[in-house]
Amino acid sequence: MKITIVSGSQRGQSQSLNVANYLQKLASSYFDDTTVLDLHQLNLPFWNEGVWQGSEEWDCWKPIAQTLKQSDAFIFITPEWHGMATPALKNFLMLTSDDELAHKAALLVSVSASINGVYPISELRLTGNKNNHVCFLPDHLIFRNCENTLTADHECTDQQLHERSQYTMDLLAAYANALAPIHRDMVNAGKAFRYGM
């Protein structure tokens, strides 16, 4: 199985990328192929209709979309900025479609420099899957006090959080396996209803 991990921070060398690298190490026990997409590095344009029409501006999106299509599961990581998910991650989710994500498992993760981190999870659960039909796990992870929680070598210093992260990765792999036939059988059947009600 293949997993794509998206670090949604717009900052270089962010704590979100540190979390992505930590989770990639955990994911390698469950997934044969792990990819980290750093939205700071990708620096995608803001969504516009050209992405639907295949305009030259969106040539950069084609290999990303292909990576997503080939993925069985996803992890979306966002720092909490002003109680919100980042514009980069929201833009990324707007660019995705049911072709890439529908009926596949996704874990939501937020990162906070303090004790917060709940609001971005709620925001993404509300709108992050409307048109792409990705299936968010009922569980999520929040890396609070992130500068003290993870080392520069992507090791978790909080044993309870580490154990919870391992369990959640196990859960994500189980959902990815269970949802594979649903994606296969239903993604085309749902084309007539791809924009919800």
TrEMBL record:
The keyword Flavoprotein applies. Pfam families: FMN_red (PF03358). One of its GO terms (molecular function) is oxidoreductase activity. InterPro entries: Flavoprotein-like_sf, FMN_Rdtase-like_dom, NAD(P)H-dep_reductase. Keywords: Flavoprotein, FMN. It comes from the Bacteria. Signal peptide: none annotated. GO terms for cellular component: cytosol. Residues 1-140 form the NADPH-dependent FMN reductase-like domain. PANTHER family: CHROMATE REDUCTASE, NADPH-DEPENDENT AZOREDUCTASE AZR. This is NAD(P)H-dependent oxidoreductase.
